[in-house]
Amino acid sequence: MKRGIIEMLDGMAINKADGDNRAKAERARMEYSGALHLFPASADGWTPRVLTCSSVAREGIAEVWQMVLEHRNLLEGNGFLTKLRNLQALQWMNELMMLGLEELFRGNRAVARRLPLLREEVHRGRMTPFAASRELLSLFRLQPADHETPKETL
User: Fold this and answer.
1) Same domain, yes or no, for 47 and 35?
2) What are the tens digits of pLDDT across the range 93-135?
3) Percent of the chain having pLDDT more than 70?
4) Residue 12: beta bridge partners?
5) Residue 59: left if φ>0, alpha if ψ -120 to 50, beta else—which one?
6) Residues 9 and 40 in one domain
7) Looking at the DSSP assignment, which residues form a beta bridge with residue 11?
């Protein structure tokens, strides 16, 4: 089990819990349920659940949906959903800023000219990633952006 992924889940539905798979799905449910109890309690007050379901046998689907609704109601009721949405908005803003900065960086003429050569130098082991990135950042800082006019000296 990947610890990072398991720590992030709020619920799990093990599908295809029918026919010959029913016992395997139940065993998996028990194993995942046991593993989830090893992690610290969630800050939002929710205890993750592991359910089994089968779309073929039409079993467990309502229970999975009920779990989703209960989780949503808890998060809305304790204000955690609003906190999560606010954090997501900040993360999105940061991601958009980083994308914009990367676009400006790659659009810089000096950087665009030097980048392919420095990539090759790093790839061949003739230059460290640190040295190459420092050179590129220095070029970026020293040369005015394409949309800026050079500042006059006094």
Assistant:
1) yes
2) 999 999 999 999 999 999 999 999 999 999 999 999 999 999 9
3) 91
4) 50
5) beta
6) yes
7) 49
* Angle between the N-to-C axes of helices 109-123 and 129-142, in degrees from 0 to 180, rounded to the nearest 10: 170
Residues spanned by the domain of 117: 82-142
The angle formed by the CA atoms of residues 104, 108 and 109, to the nearest 5 degrees, is 160
For residues 150 and 80, give the distance between their C-alpha atoms in angstroms, rounded to a whole number. Answer: 49
Q: What is the phi/psi pair of residue 106, to 5°?
A: -70, -25
pTM, two decimals, is 0.69
Q: What is the 3-state secondary structure (H, E, C) of the chain?
A: CCHHHHHHCCEEEECCCCHHHHHHHHHHHHHHHHHHCCCCCCCCCCCCEEEECECCCCECHHHHHHHHHHHHHHHHHCCHHHHHHHHHHHHHHHHHHHHHHHHHHHHCHHHHHHHHHHHHHHHCCCCCHHHHHHHHHHHHHHCCCCCCCCCCCC
Whether the CB-CB separation of 88 and 80 falls below 8 Å is answered with no
